[in-house]
Amino acid sequence: MAKILIIDSSHAHLAGLVDQLLASGQEVRLAHEPSQAEKLLQEEENDLVIFNLEAEGFDRLRFLEKALLLAPFTPVICLSGQADLEEAVDAVKLGALDYKLLSTSSETLAELISVAIKKPHALEGPFLTANPSLKNLLFRLKDVARSDATILITGESGTGKEVLARFIHQESPRNKGPFIAINCAALPEHLLESELFGYEKGAFSGAFTRKMGKFELANGGTLLLDEITEMPLALQAKLLRVLQEGEVDRLGGAYPVKVDVRVIATTNRDIEAEVAQGRFRADLYFRLNVIPVKLPPLRERPEDIKLLALHFCREFANRYERPVKGFAEGVLERLAQYHWPGNVRELKNVIERAVLLAQGPWITLKDLFPEEFRPKAREGLPLKPLKEVEKEMILKALKAANGNRTKAAEILGISVRTLRNKLQLYRQAGLI
């Protein structure tokens, strides 16, 4: 049995559909006024929303946008009195599941509803975004995913580069094959080489058996080379050969092994600057950069701050079985004003902590940030700039961790690399 919310200013238009849904055992709620609809969207779990755009007082797509913010993971079917192609396109761009005419038969609508409540909504996919530019990027990447072209994803730490790589893999014909990821910054050169290319028994001391490398393990699928700019130059030359020839040489091997792998690489560095300074091979850069993708930081996509905060809230409330429904009034707006130096990773960690600390059904600012990290506004005195607050948070976290950068990064919900880069910038600016 599904819970279906119907938003309409009267019973007349959809009476036949309501009767059919009730007869099929569905639970139907009706909202006749905007305030009533907003309450049911925010406080109730709905499996589907049917919105009559002709309903009086609801302002068509403006209310749709508000509804999708209040319940971003609930699919919405819009109904209109007249066919308006431009409005239909705008509705789908905003996040509506479908756009149909009110004259559509109850049987056809019921069939569409049946499919909608059984099928996961698009927002439940691996890469969540409400940002128009990123939505357009995802749409174009679906076409790119069908090819075997290498892709280079750039962006700050924590922006979701690996999540985007998984999205590309899932949209590709290789989605039945493996998705293998390796962090090029996590291993020293000799271990990274054996992890990538594998080795034969007896290739070196301790090689007691043959080991397949990540390229062979990813055969028929996708290999993600995370933080590619951290790869030593000697290994870059070997990687280039693999990409050009489609075969790997195991350490100690007598002959090359053919592989069929789609490669996606990521970096949080300015890779063109790395090439200019001789730290990254130009020929490898051009080989990887067939399809360049740049992910903007979270602070440049404020729509996603609210969307992801709601998503993580629901995810962790379910995981930890906490009675948390959402955020107190004004909290999402304050989250959107924060700088988020650790991007999505930091936001996720903050929301996870808040879900665990929340004393009631609604997350407050006190649950999100320790008191000393929240600047207090006094009459006549401005709030501190975000960059100053960020520096204070980092220094206090380091103090609390007794100078241990790994522990400080965990407290802040950012990577050690991001923390190290921030400290370097502060030293260069003479701030510490």
Number of strands: 16
Q: Tell me what the CATH architecture of the largest domain is.
A: 3-Layer(aba) Sandwich
Share of residues in strands: 5-15%
How do the strands of the widest beta sheet line up side by side? 2-1-3-4-5
CATH superfamily of the largest domain: P-loop containing nucleotide triphosphate hydrolases
Q: Average pLDDT value?
A: 86
| Alpha carbon gyration radius | 26 Å
Let me know the largest β-sheet: 5 strands, parallel
CATH topology of the largest domain: Rossmann fold
The class by helix and strand makeup works out as: alpha/beta
According to CATH, what is the class of the largest domain?
Answer: Alpha Beta
Query: What is the total number of structural domains?
Result: 3
Oligomer: single chain
Terminal CA distance reads 60 Å
Catalogue the unreliable spans.
120-124, 372-383
The helicity comes to 40-55%
Question: What is the gist of this entry?
Answer:
By secondary structure, the chain is an alpha/beta fold. The protein is 45% helix and 14% strand. It folds into three domains: 3-124, Rossmann fold, CATH 3.40.50; 133-294, P-loop containing nucleotide triphosphate hydrolases (Rossmann fold, 3-Layer(aba) Sandwich), CATH 3.40.50; 300-428, Helicase, Ruva Protein, domain 3 (Orthogonal Bundle), CATH 1.10.8.60.
